[in-house]
Specification:
single chain; 42% helix; 14% strand
C-alpha cells in the first residue's frame, strides 16, 4: 500500500498495453497512406494527356528579323544549359560584358535550360544602358532571381496539387508556376512572346521528341528550308518551329515565356514532356507535339545562332557563348560502373561529346565554303582550372583560385571538399538550386574568364 501511494505521489502511471483496436487503427492508417501513394503512382502513369498549350496552324508574312536587326552587325549571345549553375554563370558573365559596353550590342539571344532564366529576365526587365550603379543593381537583382531554389518551388507546387507528384508532364507545370513571379516572368499576368522586345531575337531551345530535332520557341522566325540563304545549312540539322508546310513563323504571341523556359529545362525523366495541341483547318483530328530539354541535343545553344546567321546575307559576326555544361571526366576513380544508374546525365554527356566534335568540323567546313567569319568566344567555368594550371591568369587571379585564403565567406564544409577553389568548380552539381558557396565561386569564374578574354574582343 505504501509503495502504491509513493508511486502515485511521484507521478508515475502504469502504462496500458496497446490494444487490438489501436493496432487496427494504425494498420488502417498505413494502408490508407499506401493506397494513396499507389493511387498517385497509377494516376501518373495512366493520367489522360496533359496539354500545356493549344495553337492554330496559320501563316503569317514577314522576314526573319525586324528591319532594324537586319541592318545591325550580327552579335549572338548563347547561354547554355546546366541548371542553376548555368543561370548564375551566364548572369555574371553578362554583367561583365555589359560593363564593357558589349552586351548592349547583342542582336540574337539563344538559351538552353538554365540559360533561359537570365535570358528571359533580360528580355522582360529593361537593363540600364550605361555602366554604373544602376547597372550593378540590375544584375544583382537578376542574380538573386535566377539563383532562387526552384526545386523548392516545384515541390511546394506539387504538394498543393498532389496529382502532379507522379506525373512528370504535370510536374512541368509546377516549374512553370515557380517561374511566374512578380518582377521576373509575371507583370500582373504571365508574360508571353508578345512581351519580348523587337530590338532582339530571342530563341528558347527545346528538343522535339517526335522528330529528334531542335525545336525553337522564338519571337522571330527561323528561315524556311526553301529560302535561298537557308539552304547553306543542311536540312537535317535545322531546327523545327511553329511552322507549317509553306511558312516558318514565330511562336504564337500568347505563348507564355515561363512555359518556354520550363520546357527548355524539362530534363527527363523528372520533367516533361510539354505537349502542344495543334488544330489544323480542315482536319477533324488535332496534331500533338512533344518537347523537352534542349540540352539533350545541343547544350551550348550556339547551333541556333549559327542557323540564324546563315540565313542572313552577312559574312561577318560574333557570338559570346557561356557554356556551363559539365565535361566528361577521364576517370570514375573508385566508383562502380553503377554510377550510370544514378546519373542519367552521364549518358547525355557522352552523346554531346561525340556530337560536338562533328558539329565543329561541319561548321568549319561551311564557314570556309561560304567565306564566312563568325567568331565565337566561348567561356566555360571549368576553363578556370585549366588556365590556372598553365599559369595563364593574371597574378591576382592565380592567387585567388589557387588558395582558399582569399575566400573568407566560403564555409568550412565546402573548403574541405576540394583542395583549391578552382578544383571545387568541378564539383558544383546540376540542378534547379545552387548553394550560397557555389554561387560565389561560379559568379567569380564568369567574371575572371570574361576579363581574361577582354583583349581578344577588339
Amino acid at each position: 500500500m505504501v509503495g502504491a501511494i509513493t508511486a502515485s505521489r511521484m507521478g508515475y502511471r502504469r502504462r496500458k498495453p496497446v490494444g487490438v483496436r489501436h493496432l487496427v487503427y494504425i494498420g488502417m492508417l498505413l494502408a490508407a497512406v499506401l493506397l494513396l501513394a499507389v493511387g498517385f503512382a497509377i494516376y501518373g502513369l495512366l493520367a489522360p494527356l496533359q496539354v500545356h498549350f493549344k495553337a492554330m496552324s496559320r501563316e503569317v508574312p514577314g522576314g526573319n528579323d525586324a528591319p532594324e536587326l537586319a541592318e545591325r552587325t550580327f552579335v549572338g549571345l548563347a547561354l547554355s544549359g546546366g541548371g542553376a549553375r548555368a543561370a548564375v554563370f551566364a548572369a555574371a558573365g553578362m554583367h561583365e560584358l555589359a560593363k564593357m559596353g558589349l552586351l548592349q550590342n547583342v542582336t540574337h539571344v539563344s538559351s538552353v535550360s538554365g540559360g533561359g532564366f537570365p535570358a528571359s529576365y533580360w528580355a522582360i526587365n529593361e537593363m540600364p544602358a550605361e555602366p554604373g550603379d544602376a547597372l550593378d543593381r540590375y544584375f544583382a537583382a537578376m542574380l538573386e532571381t535566377v539563383a532562387k531554389d526552384y526545386f523548392n518551388s516545384i515541390h511546394m507546387n506539387q504538394l498543393r496539387h498532389p496529382s502532379r507528384l507522379m506525373s512528370p508532364s504535370r510536374r512541368l507545370t509546377s516549374l512553370q508556376e515557380g517561374l511566374q513571379q512578380e518582377g521576373f516572368l509575371n507583370r500582373g499576368s504571365d508574360t508571353t512572346i508578345a512581351d519580348l522586345p523587337q530590338s532582339r531575337s530571342f530563341y528558347f531551345n527545346a528538343v522535339s521528341y517526335d522528330a529528334g530535332r531542335r525545336f525553337v520557341i522564338s519571337n522571330a522566325r527561323l528561315p524556311h528550308p526553301d529560302d535561298t540563304l537557308a539552304s547553306r545549312l543542311p536540312g537535317a540539322i535545322r531546327a523545327l518551329s511553329f511552322s507549317d508546310k509553306h511558312k516558318s513563323i514565330p511562336a504564337p504571341s500568347d505563348f507564355p515565356i515561363s512555359l518556354a523556359v520550363a520546357t527548355s529545362a524539362a530534363f527527363p525523366p523528372y520533367l516533361g514532356p510539354l505537349t502542344i495541341e495543334i488544330d489544323r483547318p480542315g482536319s477533324a483530328e488535332s496534331e500533338f507535339w512533344h518537347l523537352g530539354d534542349g540540352g539533350i541535343l545541343e547544350n551550348p545553344g550556339v547551333e541556333t545562332l549559327r542557323e540564324a546567321f546563315y540565313a542572313t546575307d552577312k559574312v561577318e559576326g560574333r557570338i559570346y557563348s557561356f557554356d556551363a555544361g559539365q565535361r566528361l571526366q577521364p576517370s570514375f576513380a573508385k566508383s562502380d560502373i553503377s554510377i550510370f544508374s544514378r546519373d542519367l546525365v552521364q549518358f547525355v554527356d557522352v552523346i554531346l561529346e561525340y556530337a560536338t566534335g562533328h558539329r565543329a568540323t561541319l561548321y568549319e567546313a561551311l564557314d570556309e565554303k561560304h567565306d564566312i567569319a563568325l567568331r565565337t568566344f566561348t567561356f566555360n567555368y571549368l576553363d578556370v582550372e585549366e588556365l590556372l594550371a598553365k599559369g595563364a591568369l593574371e597574378q591576382n587571379d592565380q592567387r585567388l583560385w589557387n588558395s582558399w585564403d582569399a575566400w573568407p565567406t566560403i564555409g568550412a564544409a565546402t573548403r574541405a571538399q576540394a583542395k583549391t577553389p578552382a578544383s571545387r568548380l568541378r564539383q558544383v552539381p546540376t540542378g534547379f538550386s545552387i548553394s550560397a558557396d557555389d554561387r560565389i565561386l561560379i559568379e567569380a569564374a564568369a567574371r575572371t574568364l570574361v576579363r581574361h578574354s577582354a583583349g581578344s574582343f577588339v
